[in-house]
Design goal:
Elements lengths: L3 E2 L7 H18 L6 H17 L4 E2 L7 H12 L5 H8 L3 H4 L4 H8 L1 H14 L9 H12 L3 H16 L6 H21 L3 H15 L1 H13 L1 H21 L4 E7 L2 H11 L10 E7 L6 H15 L1 E2 L5 E2 L12 E6 L5 E8 H9 L2 H4 L4 H20 L5 H13 L2 E5 L5 E5 L4 H8 L1 H5 L1 E6 L2 E3 L11 E5 L16 H32 L6 H10 L5 H9 L12 E3 L2 E3 L12 H9 L6 E3 L8 E3 L11 E6 L2 E6 L5 H7 L4 E6 L7 E10 L4 H12 L3 E10 L2 E10 L2 H12 L4 E7 L2
Parallel strand pairs: 4-8, 16-20, 17-19
Antiparallel strand pairs: 1-2, 3-4, 5-7, 6-7, 7-8, 9-10, 11-12, 11-13, 14-15, 18-19, 18-20, 21-23, 21-24, 22-23
Bound molecules: manganese (II) ion (MN).
Length: 740
């Protein structure tokens, strides 16, 4: 392992030995459940073997290497609730890869289960994450390995958590790499497994590594507001506490700040400053209920809370009646405090709280480890079945995987009350296809909660959806723009292919019929002549266009025919007048699929080109380079050259509307210098439009100023409105978008 070095500086070895034993005993105490002599013996055996195997190694920090496996094992026991087998495997997790110990040795000493787990863990660390474009394939490899035994995932998460906790001694480059991987794969995995605490800690630590300034700034602000927050919380909960006591509840109330990462996410997605994030903390009420009274008690507490504070009607989340896919159960509401501040209140039972904090492991803490593993089998089976039939390429696979496992789901109902589970963002059309492909194909709209809506309408949790169909309806190309489920996409594409095939036959017959009517032979030569004349790129293209009535053969004057051969000039087009898109389309043929930009799942595969800074709304195309796809604006100064020289490497691209993403754009302006002008312009940019500036430069000479701003905007429209605002400043004489 690269984070170990084989040097032994002079240190107090006796003290170190004592420290190692101390940590080992701490681990033993943390192992849950049965502490029979047999179990203790196994753990001691693993500890001794790991100690011996790693004895020459030290971590980057200079500490003995064995600290790491002990810490990982302890996280497994204490924070995930795993049992002896996992603790043994965690102690040995780096031995096969880093030391002389072989997998066979492990198998002989500890049996098949431990050996299989170690083998899985060793394989994952062999995966090379070096390049962006490899990520999707690696992701698959990792999952393949992880899917063998859920303990591999859990121990890997513990390993990653400890590495993240001790990231400081790594090189900056390594820190960034590890933090990115953590955000990309491990935090979502932890989330999926319901390991809420581990997920938040991984995210926070990643943010600290990637953007230390942001992290420390938020941390500092949270600390600064702590006493005010505490006072607010105690005043807020006082009447609730009294009422709950009067009702005879056993309970605990916590006022916990949200994680730094989630606060930062909110600032980014809602485009607000730290001070504007209203829910910096959540109040959590945990009731000690009998199992059969859990639900009733939670609603009783809800009613007490809302006796004192007005709830926001659209912010009630009942995850007790319908738990989240990862097992999360809780009742959330947001209420108005007397000071006019919205406060999120989470209500749950003790059991629900433990599940929420530690994942399903909490259930099985005091049962056997095998039960625990069994409980996770459901999720694992899902992964396994996806791995067995990967849909096409690795990127699609990641997309589907994330959709199916990582995103939260919504539940919608048929008019008869049957529940359908769909990913967040699913539309009425997705719902229609989910019911039956024929219903999807014939969908013309829907009634959501008895109100007529277009089929592109995104559904919300609890919606009741009635699909309206028509026999005359046929799937349209544009449907692909708003369905989100892979199965609906697939079915639409299939239907479109069928339609095309049918149309092509119609077109072909029409062309043949016309040739005969003109007295020409029906042969390849004549069809090519006709294609060339009508600027069709191929016979198939000709048939298609005729069928779609883009070419009306009946409107053509009958051409001359000589010996059965058509006499028709080749069609001409002035090349300069054609839109670039058409040129590319012609060069690329009709096959190449469209790259959709702005879809976060594809974000690893493309980069926005720095030469023209494309933003959503711009006409763009993708250019394939060895480092991945680069997105350029169609009017990029380099576009013409790229298109003419490397046409085969061009792919169509279009934006998918997602305004939570920000893009860098440059604006240049000039005007007459005046007092306070710099201030006025920066105010316009940062406040009125709520955009983030990256850099701003002003130069003033002889009463004339010139400025250049690089700012993050959402899309072309957003940029345009910013340009208009700047133009409205009287002193400003010219404003234009620049490329760099
Ligand atoms: Mn490790």
């Amino acid at each position: 392992m690269p984070d170990s070095v084989a040097t032994t500086p002079a240190i107090d070895l006796e003290a170190e030995k004592e420290q190692i034993l101390h940590r080992y005993r701490g681990l033993l105490r943390a192992v849950p459940g049965d502490r029979s002599t047999e179990n203790t013996r196994l753990i001691r055996k693993a500890f001794n073997i790991a100690l011996e195997a790693h004895k020459e190694q030290r971590r980057k920090s200079g500490e003995p290497y064995i600290y790491h496996p002990i810490a990982v094992a302890r996280i497994c026991a204490e924070e995930i609730g795993l049992g002896v087998t996992s603790v043994v495997a965690a102690l040995l997790h780096d031995t096969v890869e880093d030391t002389d110990l072989t997998l066979e040795d492990v198998r002989d000493l500890f049996g098949d289960t431990v050996a299989t787990i170690i083998d899985g863990l060793t394989k994952i660390s062999g995966v090379n994450w070096q390049t962006d474009s490899m990520q999707a394939e690696n992701f698959r490899k990792v999952l393949l390995t992880l899917a063998q035994d859920v303990r591999v995932i859990l121990i890997k998460l513990a390993d990653r958590l400890h590495n993240m906790r001790t990231l400081d001694s790594m090189s900056r480059e390594k820190q960034l790499k590890i933090a990115s991987e953590t955000l990309f794969l491990y935090a979502p995995l932890a989330h999926r497994l319901g390991l809420y605490n581990i997920k938040s800690e991984l995210e926070d630590l990643s943010l600290r590594a990637k953007e230390p300034e942001v992290y420390h700034d938020i941390e500092h602000r949270l600390k600064k507001g702590e006493s005010v927050r505490k006072r607010f919380i105690s005043r807020f909960i006082l009447p609730i506490r009294q009422a709950l006591e009067k009702e005879g509840f056993e309970f605990e109330i916590k006022g916990r700040p949200k994680s730094i990462f989630s606060i930062y996410q909110k600032m980014l997605t809602k485009h607000v400053t730290f001070d504007e994030v209203y829910d910096l903390f959540a109040i959590r009420i945990i009731v000690d209920s009998k199992p059969e009274l859990e639900k009733a008690d939670c609603w009783k507490v809800y009613s007490i809370v809302t006796d004192f504070y007005q709830p926001s009607p659209d912010r009630l989340r009942d995850w007790i009646s319908m738990p989240k896919a990862n097992g999360y159960e809780s009742l959330h509401t947001t209420v108005m405090s007397p000071g006019g501040k919205w406060v999120e209140v989470q209500i749950r039972s003790r059991r629900m709280d433990e599940v929420a904090e530690m994942g399903l492991a909490a259930h099985y803490r005091y049962k056997g480890e095998e039960d625990h593993v069994h409980a996770m089998e459901g999720m694992l089976n899902k992964i396994r079945s996806m791995l067995k039939n990967p849909a096409g390429n690795a990127l699609d696979f990641v997309h589907d995987f994330k959709l199916n496992l990582f995103t939260d789901v919504i539940m919608a109902f048929t008019p008869k009350g049957e529940m359908r589970t769909l990913p967040v963002g699913a539309t009425a059309l997705d719902f229609a296809f989910d019911i039956h492909s024929q219903i999807g194909r014939r969908c013309i709209g829907a009634k959501v909660n008895h109100k007529l809506v277009p089929m592109s309408q995104a559904l919300r949790n609890g919606d009741q959806v009635e699909i309206i169909t028509s026999r005359k309806q046929q799937p349209k190309e544009e449907w692909l723009n708003f369905v989100v489920t892979p199965s609906a996409r697939h079915k639409i594409k299939q239907a479109l292919r069928e339609q095309k095939r049918k149309l092509a036959t119609v077109g072909k017959e029409a062309v043949q019929h016309k040739l005969r009517a003109w007295g020409a032979k029906v042969n390849e030569e004549n069809i090519t002549i006709l294609s060339d004349h009508l600027l069709a790129t191929s016979p198939a293209d000709l048939y298609w266009k005729v069928a779609r009535e883009q070419h009306d053969l009946n409107a053509m004057a009958p051409p001359a025919v000589k010996n059965g051969r058509l006499i028709l000039p080749k069609g001409k087009r002035a090349p300069d007048e054609r839109p670039l898109e058409e040129i590319v389309a012609e060069i690329r043929g009709t096959k190449g699929s469209t790259l959709t930009i702005g879809d976060e799942l594809q974000s690893m595969d493309y980069k926005l080109s720095p030469c023209c800074h494309p933003i959503p709304g711009d006409d763009v195309f993708g250019f394939i380079t060895p480092e991945g796809i680069r997105i350029h604006r169609v009017n990029c100064p380099n576009a013409v050259q790229l298109m003419s020289n490397f046409a085969m490497r061009i792919v169509k691209a279009r934006w998918k509307g997602k305004d939570s993403v920000e893009f860098l754009a440059g604006i240049q302006f000039s005007g007459i210098d005046a007092v306070g002008i710099v201030n006025r312009i920066t105010t316009i940019i940062s406040h009125e439009n709520n955009v983030n500036m990256r850099s701003i430069n002003f130069e003033s000479r002889d009463g004339i100023f010139e400025g250049k701003v690089m700012a993050f905007v959402h899309n072309a429209e957003h940029l345009h409105s910013l340009v208009e605002k700047l133009r409205s400043v009287p002193e400003v004489r010219s404003v234009e978008r620049i490329d760099r």
